Amino acid sequence: MRNWLFDRQGRFGAPATLLPGLLVLMGAGCQEVTSTGKVRPAEVLWKAPVAERFAGTSSVPVTDGERMYVTGTGVAAFDVRTGTQLWKTPRFTSSTPTHISVRDGRVFAAEAVAFAFDAATGREMWRFTPDTDASLSQSTADERAFYFGTESRTVYALSTADGAPLWSTRIGADWPNRGIVKGVSVSGDTVYATAERHYSPNGYYSAGVIVALDRSTGRELWRYQNGTGTDSRGVIGAPTVADRLLLASDHKGNAFFAVDRFTGEEVWRTPTEPGWAGPGAPPVAVGNVAYASGADTYVYALDLQSGRVIWRTRPAMGSSRYHAVCGKAVFNNLSYLGIVDRHTGRLMGLMFEDQERITSGFAVHDDRIFFLTHSAAYALKCP
Question: What range does the domain containing 18 cover?
Answer without folding.
Answer: 1-30
